[in-house]
Amino acid sequence: MLLHHLQPSFAGGEISPSLYARVDSAAYGSWLKTARNFYVHPQGGASNRPGTAFMGAAKYDGKACRILPFVLGEEESYVLELGEKYMRVYTSAGRLLNADGSVYEIATPYGAHELSSLNSTQYDQTLFLTHPSYPPKRLVRLESGRFEFSDVPIKYGPFKMANTQADKRLRVTLHHETVMKEGASARVSFLPVAEPGYFVVGYFNGGRFFVGHDYGFDAGFFTSEFNRVFGSSGFRAVCLGGVITVTSPKDTGGNWNGRSLTLEYRIAFTRPPVSTVIYTLSGGTNTGEQIVQGADTYLLESDFDLFTSDYIGGAFSLTHRVESQCVTGTLGYDGVSSSIKTGSNWRLRTSGNWAGQLVLEKSEDNGASWEKVTFFSRASGDAAPSSVGNLEDTGALFWLRIRAVNVTGEVGYELQAESFLQEGVVRITDVAGPRQAVVQIERYLGGEDWTADWAEGSFSPKSGYPSCVFFYQDRLGLAGTRAEAQTIWFSRTGEHSHFGHMRGALEDSDSFCINLSGKKLNAIHSVAVAGKLLVFTAGSEWTVSSSGALTPYNVQIEQQSERGASRALPVMVGNKALFVQARGGALRDFYYDYNSASYTGSDLTLCAKHLFFNQEIREVCYQQEPDNLVWCVLSGGEIATLTYLAEENLCAWTHHTTQGFFRSVCTIPNRGYDEVWFAVERDGRYFIEKLLQRLSSKEPQDQVFLDASVSRKADTAFAELGGLEHLEGREVGVLADGSPVSGLIVTNGKITLPRPMTCVHAGLTYEAELQTLPAALADNGGTLQDRKRRLVSVTLKMSDSRGGRAGTEETQLDELIQRSTEPFNSPIALKTGDYTLTVAGTHGLMPSVIFRQTEPLPVTLLAIISRIV
User: Fold this and answer.
1) Could you tell me if 247 and 186 are in contact, meaning their C-beta atoms sit under 8 angstroms apart?
2) Which of 184, 458, 677, 845 is 20 to 30 A away from residue 559, measured at CA?
3) Alpha-carbon Rg of the chain, whole angstroms?
């Protein structure tokens, strides 16, 4: 009996082999066994992905790079290429160049091995970047195509909890005498990862010293080998509790700052390392270096051992009580009074027989400059003026004085201020020894006395820097340092660099911080902004919100679930956050469910676990137009693509390969669609490539389904195509005037065409393959799943397609014949219609349809009809 089976949709996407027997599922009829280099449309059809255009090669071969979006609108969007301590900028038209034709480039502090830990967010025309090892940075667009990269000028905080030990005191004094630095060892501590399937090779300062004698990691053997090789030079490695600490010689510690200890995890010496981890020494100083005196050089001193070079760049706050002050005296024609200190309030009384004007002036820089606060005028015979007032209390220390202007007679005055607490802030620029550090004044102190009321800054090389950055209710948010992994800091409202507070009680607009107090110490890995702030940690998910505008007094913190997240940045799709679950093998959504009145979500990879087996999702981005696609870069170099439309319960996975490895992905908007960009590793080199718009034209000669492609279109025919230096020596596929050409090899950056052409695309070929599951059939005798069947013909419903082969066996696929009315030697047009093939196959328990596209041309499958006996 001939049975006809229709698969009208592929909306279930590619599924895991563990689901092949689930013929009872309502979704079985839309599932696919394989969908490679295809993606599923929200309407149910499936198309092969377009090719990529080569936009440029990364600066360095063999060193990783990463791409990030910087979006100012459809008219102006950029893709940033970040590599080994540099940044380059691309637009849809290509790489930005300087006026002399050289590549426009910005220096950055990030090494290639550190790029995976970068976190970013955008506010207006500024992109903010954070990394656990560096102060927060910002990239500001100055004008179209020109940028400025600098530190975020964080000031007045934030600080850790205040010191509570009365016998530990600090003070700040002017630097009056020569100070010689004491030596300190550079060091690094780390907990090594033990991978049972790999052996470890260790390098220090560029030289190999360790090769693991077995798979896994033997910490004892590692430290003994390090000490055997480097111990005679004063280095030492110790292992305590599994944590390895490496220290340099003390006297020359400064020479070893920035030196690297590298661990490579390998399967075999003949293959590249599977992963590389780099640890950097820091905190060293050299004995005998002199700290130069200067008029504005201050020393921060402690009465206990405290400072190391890891504190350089960090801040300290010191609080003093400034007693009430009063200055009295007389002024003549243009006299100036002595000054007093105040936090805000002041009182002035005058006396005597005088006429003219008195000006009350303030200074915020210890008298270096003055500005007028108010003035008092008196004519002869008038009463002597007196007044009280308050300066705007910003937390700063003010100096006040009186200036006489054209005064006749003699003014008697009394200027006074009440006592107040003054929190001074200093930032360390150098370290002389464990009890002395050179500092810059960020906010003036109330005195030079020793004080036990001090606090250490939250951000420094010693404590680490924020790993996450975001904006919420016009506050800059920073989260998760090494020392305070569960803390979130908010800037003052509207003042994104200001992390201080007013004097006395916190105001609603002041900076503040919160701590996620869970059952475990779970570091904050990422933050997403929705109606509430969604915080993803290593072991749980939280929300931060407020009743009204966010203030220090109405913030609400709630733990919502305990799944945990990796460090891959989440993406927002509508009102849902998509994040990578801890350990990297699953993608989940996270949203508020009104039915249960709680936050919930599901594992979006549940039906396609085979795509993520022994792999991690490294990066995620969302392409809204035209097909609601979520692109996931996998650690193995493939791309997994999810067609996600939650309101239609659509969740369809496919995967993509190329002649190389996908390493990074991002999207930027363009007119009518979103562009997807990749960083791709090919033969040890990194290329920046742009996924081309699919069917931007329906003319056959305009189709580009080749990777790392170069195109040329001209009115006059040409016989050579250049610009292919990045594919030197490789065989490339070509679409020339709408017809495929194969077997051409790039020589000296170009290929020679069989004959002159006017429209040519050349690049790396890839196959697109789609395979259905066996039909779920039954008859009066029950299921047919355990009976042998044979598929005899297949009908493919196609749209705007050309080319392809179909059949039931991998080695025996029949070509679709599509030429109809086109003249000979002219390209076949893209066709929409049904194509029926009689296929040769054998009887089997699981016959299915295989469709494969090997030519660089578009295909879209809408449905498949199988005829089975």
Assistant:
1) yes
2) 458
3) 34
Q: What average pLDDT does the segment 36-64 reach?
A: 96
Distance CA 732, CA 711 (A): 13
Q: Is the pTM of this model over 0.85?
A: yes
Q: State the pLDDT confidence band at 296, using cuts at 50, 70 and 90.
A: low
Q: What is the Cα–Cα distance from 706 to 708, expressed in whole angstroms? A: 7
Whether residue 347 is predicted with pLDDT greater than 70 in this model: the reply is yes
- Identify the residue with better confidence: 433 or 490: 490
Taking the CA atoms of residue 852, residue 858, residue 861 and residue 867 in that order, the dihedral angle to the nearest 10 degrees is: -40
Cis previous bond, 158, omega within 30: yes
pLDDT in tens, 762-795: 999 999 999 999 988 776 667 777 778 888 899 9
Measured CA distances, 784 to 15, 27, 184, 519, 689 (Å):
21, 19, 77, 53, 48
- Which phi and psi angles does 555 have, rounded to 5°? -70, 135
Residue 649 to residues 475, 609, 653: CA-CA distances in angstroms? 35, 18, 13
Lowest mean pLDDT among 36-40, 466-470, 700-704, 817-821: 817-821
Look at residue 291 in the predicted model and tell me its pLDDT.
65
Q: How far, in whole angstroms, is CA 205 from its chain's centroid?
A: 28
Dist CA 236 CA 121 (whole Å): 41
Task: Tell me the two tokens of residue 529.
Answer: 């902004």
Task: Supply 631's token pair.
Answer: 């692109």
Mean pLDDT of the chain: 92
Q: Burial level of 768, CB count in 10 A (0-12/13-18/19+)? A: buried
What is the C-alpha separation between 775 and 38, in angstroms, rounded? 21
855 in Cβ contact with 786 (< 8 Å): no
Contact assessment for residue 469 and residue 477, using Cβ atoms and an 8 Å cutoff: yes
pLDDT of 812 > 90? The answer is no
Q: What is the DSSP string of 322-335?
A: EPPEEEEEEE-TT-
Q: Exposed/middle/buried for 204, CB within 10 Å: 0-12, 13-18, 19+? A: buried
- Measured CA to CA, the distance from residue 801 to residue 804 in angstroms comes to 9
Q: Read off the tokens for 652.
A: 């369809």
Which residues make Cβ contacts (< 8 Å) with residue 580, sequence separation at least 6?
565, 566, 568, 570, 586, 587, 588, 616, 617, 620
CB atoms within 10 A of CB 719: 12
What integer pLDDT is reported at residue 178 of this predicted model?
63
Q: Which two tokens stand for residue 111?
A: 């090494």
Contact 762, 734 (CB under 8 A): yes
Q: What is the pLDDT of residues 852-864, one digit of tens each?
A: 999 999 999 999 9
Query: Residue 62: what pLDDT?
Result: 87
In angstroms, the CA 228 to CA 354 distance is 86
**What amino acid occupies position 254?**
G
Residue with tokens 């492609």: 709
**175 or 298, which is more confident:** 298
* Interatomic CA distance for residues 712 and 761, integer angstroms: 7
Segment 24-48 shows an average pLDDT of 96
What's the full length of the chain, in residues?
869
| Closest by Cα among 553, 557, 578 to 568 | 578
Scan for tokens 């960020």, then name that residue.
442
Tokens of residue 39, six digits:
């993606």
- Cis check: omega of the bond before 626, within 30 degrees of 0: yes
